[in-house]
């Protein structure tokens, strides 16, 4: 199945990926849109960014969102507001996270609930 959504704020980007959808809306009670530390990144999208920079920004976001024990950063895909490329950590088990654990080690995109 092919998924897409409007990302990048006023840039109105429409990236897409193929895979399955795992809704994590109430996952750990996180409000991923509030005080997002990637806001500075979104505002500087006109500047070129390296894969290393993308990974650093994603790592910062994962740490802020307290999701760094479940996901690791990927720098091989464009990063935009509401389109955060990650990998589900291989050590994520099915006991505590049955949906996520089934896809341990796989690539993923984290996105916001309020994206178009």
Structure description:
By secondary structure, the chain is an alpha+beta fold. It has one domain (32-116). The chain has 3 helices and 5 strands. It is globular. It starts with a strand and ends in a 6-residue tail after the last strand. The relative contact order is 0.22.
**SS content category:** alpha+beta
Instruction: Give the total of beta strands.
Output: 5
Query: Stretches where pLDDT falls below 50 for ≥5 residues?
Result: none
Helix content: 10-25%
Number of helices: 3
Order of helices and strands: EEHHEEHE
How is this fold's topology laid out?
Elements: E1 2-4, E2 16-18, H1 39-43, H2 51-64, E3 71-73, E4 84-88, H3 98-101, E5 107-110
Antiparallel strand pairs: 1-2, 3-4, 4-5
Please tag this protein with its features:
116 residues; alpha+beta; three-stranded antiparallel β-sheet; two-stranded antiparallel ribbon; 16% strand
Give a nutshell description of this structure.
With 116 residues, the chain is α+β, with helices and mostly antiparallel strands.
